[in-house]
Amino acid sequence: MANKVKAIILTGNGTNCEMEMAHACKFAGADRYDIVHISELLYGEKRLSDYNFLNLPGGFLDGDDLGSAKAGANRFLHAPISGANDMLIEELLKFIDAGGLILGVCNGFQLMVKLGLLPALDNNFTKQSTTLTYNDSGRFEDRWVYLKSNEQSPCVFTRNLNLVYYPVRHGEGKFIPESKTVLNEIEKKNLVAFQYCTAEGNITMDYPANPNGSTQAIAGICNESGRLFGLMPHPEAFLHRTNHPRWTRETLPEKGQGLAIFKNAVSFIRGKNF
User: Fold this and answer.
1) Is 251 within the bounds of a domain?
2) Sign of the torsion formed by the C-alpha atoms of 19, 25, 26 and 31
3) Bridge partner list, 132
4) Single pTM value for the model
5) Interatomic CA distance for residues 196 and 207, integer angstroms
6) 118 and 227 in contact (C-beta within 8 Å)?
7) Per the domain annotation, does 1 fall within a domain?
């Protein structure tokens, strides 16, 4: 019997894309798609252990004070769960150890990076080794971009994808590793899942195709298991052809390209032994 897909979409303190992510989970076939405020986790009213697909949506956590998602990361690392002996980070690590999937989009990706969930080299999920910082343009970028997937990546979410078109909406999306050694490890292990590219699929550092100047045009990375994935572009914002900026002028499939990310997650969970 196939596993039930129980998605949790975390909200609170500045997220603004939780409804779209919940709709994406529903549209992809998840059995549950609960929008949960982080305070519900902190008060023990909801538990991550009741789910197997954690969604960290975009937004501006805590107004991006201390840098994008840094305050949110500190909350995860140091906040206790009321009425329990666990810290929130301990529950998160148990969720990962149990085989759960995590998807972080935009601010959610920034949160994963600041926590250390990505790239989590050597499975160290609390050591930050990369960051996402201010765009080279010095301004907020709101545009659509092409992404090239890495077919060698272990990423669960990008399986069977090649060239996709998603929107970006960020001021701090430039991916930077802390050292050349970290970058080499990321590349050697094929943890780069998406890179910015031209409409023809050629990876590029040129603006505006690369909207932020990310090192090696990196738009999204996963951990070594492929179950944890973060990206700056918004797949949940392209679920239907009418989300496309040229839908009135082009013949497009009914389903948007972003839906595949969530369908891959659902398919993986249904076929996995938890």
Assistant:
1) yes
2) negative
3) 175
4) 0.97
5) 10
6) no
7) no
Q: Which residues are catalytic?
A: 106, 234, 236
When divided into structural domains, the chain yields a total of: 1
- Read off the pLDDT of residues 91-147 as tens digits, 9 standing for 90 and up: 999 999 999 999 999 999 999 999 999 999 999 999 999 999 999 999 999 999 999
The domain that holds 26 is classified in CATH as 3.40.50.880
- What is the SS3 assignment for 134? coil
* CA separation for the pair 224, 222 (Å, rounded): 7
Compute the Cα dihedral for 91, 37, 232, 19 and give only its sign.
positive
Which parts of the chain fold into alpha helices (H)?
18-28, 38-42, 70-78, 88-97, 107-115, 180-188, 259-271
The string of pLDDT tens digits covering residues 47-91 is 999 999 999 999 988 877 767 888 899 999 999 999 888 899 999
- Angstrom CA distances, 150 to 43, 157, 162, 187, 195, stand at 40, 11, 8, 10, 8
The two three-digit tokens of residue 19, written as one number? 């409804």
For residue 158, give the nearest of 115, 193, 117, 192 by alpha carbon: 193
Distance of alpha carbon 213 from alpha carbon 207, whole angstroms: 7
Asked if 169 and 16 touch (Cβ cutoff 8 Å), the reply is no
Residue 158 located in a structural domain: yes
The tokens describing 124, both together, are: 């160290």
Radius of gyration of the chain measured on its C-alpha atoms: 17
pLDDT tens for 193-217 read 999 999 999 999 999 999 999 999 9
Q: Look at residue 192 and tell me if it is in a domain.
A: yes
| Domain, as residue range, for 63 | 6-271
